[in-house]
Specification:
mainly alpha, five-stranded mixed beta sheet
Length: 696
């Protein structure tokens, strides 16, 4: 675990320095969070490039770390040292003294850190009985990521070949798994490496999301609410929870400690909780989302530059959009390097999380149309993206087995099946969409600056002086809803691309498997959080008790179902076996007896023992292959013929160059296995019901 922490710390140092070029007004905590994400992204990309040349070894890892650390030279400039000192002084000032507000702030961050600690501790579990997972949706995803990680550490898989479909380019965004592989390569356990990274990235996402919402709303409470809604997202499944509780005889807490199912996914619920269905299972998003939010935060600043509604100071819980002198290498450049740097960071996304890059593309197009006068900034940003993204995209597409035609198809209603569209979205997201509508109405109301000058001068509409007594002043204040004192028209326009993403995701499939539209829909959800939390905050700050009650009820409804599913994972109620002890044992044997580039034949299941060896498979789990747009039909048919030992078996073994064949309970359960046919081949490894035959 210390090795993983050390790698994260070194990479974070370089990313921390670069954060001053991205945002020169951010607080220290945000800089550490952004530094972690930026540094990890740079380190992962650098080690990929170096490993293409020399393979994954200690030299490549150290070299990539040095490259990721290189931005720290910025602190040789006095202005950046001064900014750091200001950040440090401000952070120390916030820690001095003690009051209830500081205690609540500490408790807030401590709660989420402990949540991530115990939640991601359940991602992978090891015991003498094998490898397990405590995530209800992680049964197939954990072995997929382990297969990628071990392909780098044990199979030296460079240039990366798809470990699940031999001979094809590994086009799945793999940087998150490559970063884990770096820790494993220099001595960390795979479980510890994944755990440390997941917790660090999730906590960084919390900090980055919080400030992103603060930038857009200038509302401290709204920014604090946003992480709750993201990490405990869900629909109306908690109503089914109460129905299940009423239908049985256990006590409430006993039932709560033995939940029978998830309440955000399954039985008509398809949205899922983000922690359960996304951040534990799709590690690429856990790194890609905070990086995307960093870039979106910069795009918001550019979009609102010179807008009067955004001219506030950080001390009041806001940002300043006034122009600042930014770092440049030469006074002769016609532009600041900030948009170029933001573009370069976005350009890293193809190998980190490709759908995040697609989201930024949509947002960028909308912002260009809405603010064409900033064309130079948008062009520089796009150029920065293209410099890195285009080579990565060309590399991943060349030799890929994924068929691009399978990534778009007209399809209405996302994953609603035969359910009513409106009812489906209401049950899956609860009050979210109604609150978005209410929030959009709120931000469309004229702000205080738009009121008649007489009102701003403290006069009534009739031009009279306001009432002198307190009761009359309160009545005058109540006549104007608190919603009217702020106008966030830039936020309304900034929300348009996210609304567009929701529409597109409901009229077309953006991936071979329609549920994978969630990779785009989650950004609609995140883009909606400033709208929703701003509305809840305004309700809470109203003087009416009923308004506070409505805000509280809405908040609880939004997090109720997600809290149940997260609790089910954190409280160790789930223990799914992924690999049994014989699979682990035979994998250890194969690592020492079989060449790193060996090609295996195994059943097309997610948990073949070959996954743990890092060696290639002719094909693995069909669910993964189909979701990646790979046509596996012919191989699947040929695999069955080989295992049946028919007249074509020997020729097919020769055709595909199979070197080893696995026969285990997985192969026997998948279909007929003619063990007599394979008995003529020598056994290379054996454990329990597992046998591996050497064909060549």
């Amino acid at each position: 675990m210390l090795i993983s922490l050390l790698l994260i710390a070194i990479a974070t140092a370089g990313g921390f320095a670069l954060s001053y070029l991205v945002d020169d007004e951010a607080p220290l905590m945000w800089r550490f969070a952004a530094g972690n994400i930026i540094g990890s992204s740079l380190f992962g990309t650098a080690v990929f490039v170096l490993a293409l040349i020399a393979g994954l070894n200690t030299g490549a890892i150290v070299g990539a770390l040095l490259l990721a650390l290189l931005p720290i030279v910025l602190f040789y400039r006095r202005e950046y040292r001064r900014k750091f000192e200001q950040n440090w002084s401000s952070a120390k000032g916030k820690l001095q003294g003690f009051n209830s507000q500081k205690f609540l702030r500490f408790a807030y961050y401590a709660f989420f850190f402990l949540l991530f600690f115990f939640f991601f501790d359940r991602s992978m579990l090891e015991s003498t009985a094998g490898i397990f997972t405590g995530g209800s949706q992680n049964l197939g995803d954990l072995p997929f990521h382990l297969g990628a990680i071990f392909s780098f550490t044990e199979g030296n898989n460079f240039p990366p070949e798809n470990p699940s479909f031999a001979g094809a380019r590994f086009s799945y965004p793999f940087i998150a798994d490559l970063l884990t592989a770096c820790s494993v390569k220099i001595g960390a356990s795979v479980r510890d490496a994944m755990f440390v990274q997941n917790v660090a990235w999730a906590f960084s996402l919390l900090i980055i999301l919080e400030r992103f919402v603060l930038k857009l709303t200038r509302d401290r409470l709204a920014s604090r609410l946003a992480p709750w809604l993201l990490f405990f997202s869900g629909g109306l499944g908690f109503l089914w929870f109460f129905s299940d509780y009423a239908a049985q005889t256990k006590g409430f807490f006993d039932f709560l400690s033995h939940l029978p199912k998830d309440y955000t996914i399954g039985e008509g619920f398809r949205w899922g909780n983000s922690m359960v269905v996304l951040f534990m299972t799709q590690r690429s998003l856990l790194l890609g989302m905070p990086l995307t939010l960093i870039v979106l935060g910069y795009l918001w600043k550019v979009f609102t530059m010179h807008d009067p509604a955004t001219q506030h100071t950080e001390n009041s819980g806001s940002i300043s959009a006034s122009p600042r002198r930014s770092f440049s290498l030469t006074p002769f450049l016609p532009f600041s390097l900030s948009p170029l740097l933001a573009g370069l960071l976005a350009g890293l996304l193809p190998l980190i999380h490709l759908h995040s890059l697609a989201v930024l593309f949509v947002v960028g197009v909308f912002l260009f149309v809405l603010r064409p006068e900033k064309w130079m900034t948008w062009v520089v940003f796009a150029a920065g993206v293209a410099v890195i993204a285009l080579p990565e995209l060309l590399w991943s597409m060349s030799g890929s087995a994924s068929e691009t035609s399978k990534f778009f198809e007209w399809h209405f209603g996302w994953d609603k099946g035969d359910k009513n569209f409106l009812w489906f979205w209401f049950t899956n997201t609860g009050f979210l969409i109604p609150l978005i509508a209410a929030g959009l109405y709120v931000i469309s109301i004229p702000r205080e600056d738009d009121l008649p000058q007489s009102r701003k001068d403290g006069k009534t509409r009739e031009g009279k002086e306001p009432a002198k007594n307190t009761n009359q002043r309160e009545r005058n204040q109540d006549e104007v809803s608190p919603f009217t004192i702020h106008h966030f028209s830039p936020l309304l326009w900034f929300y348009l691309p996210f609304a567009f993403l929701f529409v597109v995701s409901n009229i077309a499939k953006l991936a071979p498997w329609e549920w994978d539209n969630i990779k785009v829909l989650i950004y609609w959800f995140v883009g909606s959080l400033p709208i929703v939390t701003l509305f809840l905050s305004r309700l809470w700050h109203m003087r009416r008790t009923w308004a506070k009650a409505i805000a509280a009820v809405c908040f609880l409804v939004l997090i109720g179902s997600g809290s149940l599913d997260v609790w089910r994972a954190v409280s160790a109620q789930i223990n799914y076996k992924v690999f049994d002890k014989d699979a682990v044992e035979i994998a250890q044997q194969l690592k020492t007896r079989v060449g790193s580039k060996a090609l295996f034949l195994n059943a097309p299941t997610y948990n073949s023992a070959v996954v743990l060896t890092g060696r290639r498979s002719l094909m693995r789990y069909t669910g993964h292959l189909s979701s990646h747009g790979i046509d596996y039909g012919q191989r699947e048919s040929d695999v069955k013929k080989i295992y049946q030992g028919g007249p074509d078996a020997a020729g097919l073994l020769e055709k595909y160059g199979i070197e080893y064949v696995v026969i285990s309970p997985e192969e026997k359960n998948a279909g007929g296995v003619n063990e007599q046919f394979f008995s003529k081949f020598p056994i290379s490894a054996e454990s329990g019901q597992y046998r591996v035959y050497k064909i060549k």
